[in-house]
Specification:
Helix content: 55-70%
Radius of gyration: 33 Å
Largest sheet: 2 strands, antiparallel
Strand content: under 5%
Distance between the termini: 41 Å
Mean pLDDT: 79
Strand order of the largest sheet: 1-2
Number of helices: 41
Low-confidence stretches: 521-531, 547-563
Number of strands: 2
Amino acid sequence: MTSTDLKPSIESILEAIARFKDIMSNTLKEQLESLKVDHQRLLDFRMRGIKDEQREMIYEQLRQRAFSLLSDCYIDQACGTPGFKEARDLVKKRSYGSITLDYIRQVEERYIVEHTTLTPQDTLQHDHPQSLHERHFAEVELIFSYLLTSYHWTAHEAQEFLDFLLSSSCDMIDAQVMVSAITLNVMRQFDSNKAWLLGKIYQTANNEGLRQRAFVGWAFTLPAYHYIASTRYDALCDELLAQTEVRNNLLELQKQYLLCLDTEKDTQKLESHIFPKILKNTPYDFTPNGIKEKPRDKTEEILHPLNEEIKMKEIEECMEMIQKMKETGTDIYYGSFSKLKRNAFFTKLVNWFMPFYKEHPMISREVKSLETMNLMDVLSQEANLCDSDCYTLVSMASSFLGFLPEEMRTQALKGQIPTMMTGNADNSPAHVRLLYLQDLFRFSRVCPVAKHFVTPFDELRMDYPTLFFDGTDNDQYIEEKYDIAMFLFAQKRYRDFRRVALGIDGINTIEYHLMLATYYMYLWDEDLDPDKEREKADMALRQAQEKGDLLEQVYAYYCDDIEQAAEMCYQQIYAALDLDKDNVQALRILGSFLSADEKWDEAVKVYQHVYQLRPENKRAISDMAVALMKNGQEEDAANYVYKLSLELPENPDVMRLQAWLHLSRQQPEKALSLYRQLMDNKKTIPDDALNAGYCAWIMDDWQEAKRLFAEYIKQSEGDINGLLENFESDQRTLSLNGINEIDRCIMEDVMRQEANTATE
């Protein structure tokens, strides 16, 4: 996955690690001290002017060590919260903290041998297979807990675990449980090697349940973290995203995910409108003592013979509505089953992620007590329920059956559950994935400890729903982004729609333009009353027009929201230019907004228009020169800078333009001379020290660069973050002069140390 994001420096990662010093184990502390020593050695070498050709590789290796250590600290922090704490305690209690892949492999191989060699006689003897499954369940719970709380993996460990999960030595049910544990671990704290493992399982596994669990885990790592990921992880992501099938699956997953976000809203609709109608018209009464058939009112039947037909029609209409909701992917069972998941079965964390199987030891005894396995057989083969709902239905069966009328109880014992819950089993990848998402949603909403986990459905992700192509900047994904935008608009998710739609280039359809137009009418917030907001906006615009300062007034009216203001200004600027294409004020404001968005090519065109209208205007010349330099057109910019320097040779702003032009032309000596003149002037500004520091840095005088950067921070009354923001914004010029990403990180580390020393 390609990204222009700058990676954090090692010193910034070390500062993050320092927050965990009170909870770090001795092992992690030793790793930290070793990392610091190696890192300082690299810095000392560079500051002494020693150029190590291997420094980029060494720095990247050290950075990955820092990331791994930080990840482990986050995991230790998580293990102080419910759910994680119990899992780690379980690992320490049962294994003395020494679980290895070899141990897991032995557990799986022993179980497969014992399970496959069960004889019919063993099966008839309930205790023998029951004890086998009970013992193995305890071992799977231990493995789940270990993986959930595991530290950062090496590439070798990930490869070994991949080979094991895809081998015949691993039970497929257990493999799915392990993948869910790894997913929860990665979502709690990113590990590129574990994320790579998930992607590889999706790419190579044959079992669909395993593939889709891995796919979900991998997909939710896509939008973030790629800036700290390994090369191997990035390469796998690029390989997968190059495949049309994978991109289509991501699109489908995105839509399924958004449907899951609507689950509670859909449940409210079912419970407040649809289910009451069904209950009102059904021939049964639901009482605390069970379900009873309603007594027939013969008089009513005589007087109103069509009432029964009307009732049946209403029930049919409601059932049709439910079926349509189901077909579109709506989770129609959440409301019913979520209320039933507070039993002993779900006190075990692992059970929230356990694929449904008949031999589960916590339910098999209960089902045996019903003297039938029909219900289990139907649920295993035909039910269109997610795994946790199947377990819920079975675990509640004993108590639930006692409330049913005789006829319904007999049907249930024969395995005749409601047809809506059954049918032809849909084993398509999309359906398998949807059911797993529903399991994840139930965990996030119902499990008491889920608030301490990171899931796709926690509050942060719901505020910013994952759009799997957001972390990419490849033009080949335009069609996918357009598809997502269309879906978001149809779902009335206008904020998310704007986020996607405004980043799409090259789409010119009627539907697209109509969606954008409708969105803007709602003024970027679906919670606002569109009519009232439109009325207020119209009034503000009329007042602005009367004052003759349309653009400024519109900007002021929307200044409480910069994004809204910018978009509104764009709209009004273009409206003004439609009336007067040579309006200099409008052109300059447009140029400013384009520059702020770093759309330099467009900004150049706008400033060229201004210059044609005002060729003698010094601001017009200066704006033109800056835009050209930012756009990489240094030689064209030189003409404008030369023109200004002839007319205003002593003007500090003109000198700054000259100096920056020298930098852009890889002439740091000439630029430094001008910046020193400026710094001797009473009208000097903090940026003079900053840019002089750039010159010294480029000239390999790191000590002088360090001094000048410190002076810039002092003059600007800022901090290290302000300096780093300039490093990022001036990245192109620095790169042209040979300052690469590793050099930037080394300088950042030096300045952070300087800042930390100053505060001690």
